[in-house]
Amino acid sequence: MTRLSASFNLGRIGFYTFLILVTALSVFPFYWMYIIGSNVTAAINQFPPAMIPGGRFIENLIKVYENVNFNRALINSFVVSATLTVSVLFFCSLAGFAFAKLNFRGRNVLFAFLVGSMMVPTQLGLIPSYMIISKLGWLDDLRAVIIPGIANAFGIFWMRQYISSSVPNELLEAGRIDGCSTFRLFWNIVVPAIRPGYATLGIITFMGSWNDFLWPLVVLKDRSVHTVQIALKNLNGAYYQDFSMILAGTVLATLPILVIFLLFSKQFISGLTEGAVK
Predict the structure, then answer these.
(1) What pLDDT does residue 275 have?
(2) 56 vs 158, residue with greater confidence
(3) CA distance linking residue 172 with residue 174, whole number of Å
(4) Planar angle of CA 153, 157, 161, nearest 5 degrees
(5) Which family does it belong to (predicted)?
(6) In order of start, what are the domains of the chain with their CATH numbers?
(7) What confidence score (pLDDT) does residue 147 get?
(8) Engineered SS bond to 196: which of 63, 133, 259, 271, CB 3.0-4.6 Å?
């Protein structure tokens, strides 16, 4: 019994040691980003490398604001990311509910087509999407970034799978007997039951739209509508790159994502593990 207990304790020590190492490896890039952002650019090639934060972080941030309108970029990114997240959660959950719980002609064919569209690279739709946005007169307008992304195939697929496993048909039948319409079934029964799924999809959508670079770079040329990723790109000089300034701006641009993840991490983990334990 003592030998078994000692083996169990060693296993726990090894497991927690592994978790600590993985956590340290995950956090280190952010720590290194702050170290360089608080030093001079020469610190990036220093040997041995700098491991202690310097005292130039505020100075580097001031240089960021001198080169680009970073507050405006942060506001633009937040507006785009928040609007896209809310719209994706609503429309994708509504479509996912239809695919999961409503019987209509061609449902399986449409869902197969939807899943197949996830295999098409996003870059292939770049030119036709640009032509449509140009015809609508939305170039240099945040609508050019928001409208094409208000729903996506992954979100519909995710919500369909989540609703199928989390909402029993008997609950919906009981709602129908009580006189609920289809939309009221969705709003009053399905939505409260899939909050962990909402949190997971919301974090993924917010992070994806916040970090999106290619499409905003194509359709947003006016500096007043630049998102944060384009603003960071504009910090690169033609002949000289001030990495300490760039990484100081990157630290500031990363903070909103970290805050969102920390606020909804519990629901995010719950959404990912839903159904793993019956």
Answers:
(1) 44
(2) 158
(3) 5
(4) 175
(5) Belongs to the binding-protein-dependent transport system permease family.
(6) 70-226+258-273 (1.10.3720.10)
(7) 93
(8) 271
Q: How far apart are alpha carbons 195 and 99 in whole angstroms? A: 18
Sequential DSSP letters for 116-128: HHTTS-GGGGHHH
3-state DSSP helix/strand/coil % of the chain, to nearest 5: 75, 0, 25
268: burial class by Cβ within 10 Å (0-12, 13-18, 19+)? buried
Per residue in 46-72, pLDDT tens?
Answer: 777 777 887 888 898 888 898 889 899
Contact (Cβ atoms closer than 8 angstroms) between residue 199 and residue 268: yes
SS3 185: helix
Report residue 213 as tokens. Answer: 């670079």
In the structure encoding, which two tokens stand for residue 55, read together? 């005292």
| Structural tokens at position 209 | 């739209």
Which residues does 223 contact at the CB level (< 8 Å), separation at least 6?
Answer: 68, 69, 234
